[in-house]
């Protein structure tokens, strides 16, 4: 195979190959991701720390709790293939739930605690979970569902739907002889919901092999010294970024995960200082805030233990990278690119030098292959040519849940994933994301599908037509902006439009700017010309 060692490109099959050292996957087919993680040798002691209370869970306690909860679930009749819903903010119990469920061959589906009752009901209707884990403050969001509930936290609450308390589950005597179905690497482990281009959220089906591949990529990437590292977890565990890194991946390396239930700048910085954290994963807006407030931060907090920040969600600009390097010279910036459909894996920069390829998403992750394909003709392209990025590798999803059409549109017969991102790969094998075919709005790392908000706006009796676009913002990345066509005779205001949407969606999906137009620009087939509206919106900046 004639491979260009510099770019990783093979002319014979128009494929780019990763220049990183390949990952090793277990030869044994009958292994689940929980068993794989628990069998990794390391010298780590503390697995999880609750930043708010200081409560610690050691590795022996973690694996004992996983066995106990798995036994309790088995006693409740949970079997291989059953779906279990987890609705919870970040907590030290989140990984225990996930690992217990997956050890049985059951499937974990997570949802955003900020989602509305209606949004959660949609996911329940689609995934049909057998039971749900949740916390007291989110109980009301499951009030209309018929789901039996395991409550994490306050055990004094009485509710006819509560069938068990998590704390007591963790004290269940683990039975080695419980009903244990044979779980293989091909079986489904997680069902995470990803916003589709059509506005309908789709369930991404990932296998145990996908997750094992993700674990191996993460532990290999950081070359973690045995048990000597502490990671701060502020990114949401329900999302692939948090689930991949914190609820599974890092526990295989013996690293300590310090969990914050939500992002709050002071709490995050205090936790770095208190627990001598070495790694800080975050999204670009938080990195920008660190740069902008660096002088006050370094006076108030001792961040000397910090070795690296890991940024995901969008490539960082030269100004942000250099601003950070100037303010925090001893901390390396590492970046990552991945999708829910690729189990969070795709490309990364693994050193400051690599991140200084300004605007790059990084080099292909280990064992990952890529193609750059002309979206019009399907022709595969070479180095420095822009087209849609296709990915193939051990972490690529099995498909979309109960959605053969969406799967066929995204995965081809050879296992190539169409990412929907327009990219090019340069002479040295670095990927650059030029634009999104998928048009998702990235608000603080959350994905907001414009089509979902457009459909909602069209239900308003005074709105004739609407289009939603990403509006750039230094603090949050992008927020949804609406272009609205009023019905004849209506004088509906921008604030009324915003309030109408705000009442029906999660806070991160709110429309934060409205402009009124005579008509929405569309192409001959009726597709909204979002690029024209983005130009119009940003021309006044």
From TrEMBL:
| UniProt KW keywords | ATP-binding, Ligase, Membrane, Nucleotide-binding, Phenylpropanoid metabolism, Transmembrane, Transmembrane helix
A GO cellular component annotated for this chain's UniProt record is: peroxisome
Q: Name one Pfam family in it.
A: AMP-binding_C
| GO molecular function annotations of the record | (E)-caffeate-CoA ligase activity; ATP binding; trans-feruloyl-CoA synthase activity
Q: Name one GO biological process term.
A: phenylpropanoid metabolic process
Cell membrane as UniProt keyword:
no
Q: Where is the AMP-binding enzyme C-terminal domain?
A: 452-527
This protein's record includes keyword Membrane: yes
Membrane-spanning residues where? 238-260
Pathway note: Phytoalexin biosynthesis; 3,4',5-trihydroxystilbene biosynthesis; 3,4',5-trihydroxystilbene from trans-4-coumarate: step 1/2
What protein family is recorded?
Belongs to the ATP-dependent AMP-binding enzyme family.
Q: What is this protein called?
A: Uncharacterized protein
């Amino acid at each position: 195979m004639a491979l260009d060692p510099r770019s990783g490109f093979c002319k014979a099959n128009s494929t780019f190959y990763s220049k990183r050292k390949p990952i090793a996957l277990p030869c044994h087919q009958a292994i689940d991701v929980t068993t794989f993680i628990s069998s990794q040798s390391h010298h780590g002691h503390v697995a999880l720390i609750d930043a708010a209370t200081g409560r610690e869970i050691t590795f022996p306690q973690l694996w004992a709790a996983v066995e106990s909860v798995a036994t309790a679930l088995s006693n409740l009749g949970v079997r291989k293939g059953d779906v279990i819903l987890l609705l919870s903010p970040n907590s030290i119990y989140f990984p225990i739930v996930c690992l217990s469920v997956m050890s049985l061959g059951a499937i974990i589906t997570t949802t955003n605690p900020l989602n509305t009752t209606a949004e959660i009901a949609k996911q329940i209707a689609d995934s049909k979970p057998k039971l749900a884990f949740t916390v007291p403050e989110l109980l009301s969001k499951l009030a209309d569902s018929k789901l039996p509930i395991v409550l994490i936290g306050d055990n004094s609450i009485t509710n006819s739907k509560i069938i068990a308390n998590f704390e007591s589950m963790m004290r269940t005597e683990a039975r080695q002889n419980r009903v244990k179905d044979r779980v293989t690497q091909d079986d489904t482990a997680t069902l995470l919901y990803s916003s589709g281009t059509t506005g309908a959220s789709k369930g991404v089906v990932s296998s145990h092999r996908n997750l094992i591949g993700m674990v191996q990529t993460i532990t290999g990437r950081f070359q973690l010294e045995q048990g000597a590292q502490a990671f701060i977890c502020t990114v949401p565990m329900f999302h692939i970024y948090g689930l991949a890194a914190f609820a599974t991946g890092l526990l295989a390396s013996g690293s300590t995960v310090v969990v914050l239930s939500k992002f709050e700048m002071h709490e995050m910085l205090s936790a770095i200082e208190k627990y001598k954290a070495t790694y800080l994963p975050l999204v670009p807006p938080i990195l920008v805030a660190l740069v902008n407030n660096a002088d006050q931060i370094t006076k108030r907090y001792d961040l000397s233990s910090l070795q690296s920040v890991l940024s995901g969600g969008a490539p960082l600009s030269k100004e942000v990278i250099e601003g950070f390097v100037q303010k925090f010279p001893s901390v390396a910036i590492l970046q990552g690119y991945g999708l829910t459909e690729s189990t969070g894996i795709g490309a990364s920069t693994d050193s400051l030098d690599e991140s200084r390829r300004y605007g790059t998403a990084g080099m292909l992750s280990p064992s990952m292959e890529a193609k750059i394909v002309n979206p019009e003709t399907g022709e595969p392209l070479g180095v420095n040519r822009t087209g849609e990025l296709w990915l193939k590798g051990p972490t690529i999803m099995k498909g979309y849940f109960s959605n053969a059409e969406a799967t066929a549109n995204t995965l081809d017969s050879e296992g190539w994933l169409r990412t929907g991102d327009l990219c090019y790969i340069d002479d040295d094998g670095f990927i650059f994301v030029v634009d999104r075919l998928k048009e998702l709005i990235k608000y603080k790392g959350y994905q907001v599908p414009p089509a979902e908000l457009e459909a909602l706006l069209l239900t308003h009796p005074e709105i004739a037509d609407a289009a939603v676009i990403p509006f750039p913002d230094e603090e949050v990345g992008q927020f949804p902006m609406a272009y609205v066509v009023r019905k004849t005779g209506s004088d509906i205001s921008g604030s009324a439009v915003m309030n109408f949407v705000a009442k029906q969606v999660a806070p991160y999906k709110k429309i934060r700017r409205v402009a009124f137009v005579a008509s929405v620009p569309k192409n001959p087939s009726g597709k909204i010309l979002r690029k024209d509206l983005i130009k119009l919106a940003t021309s006044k900046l």
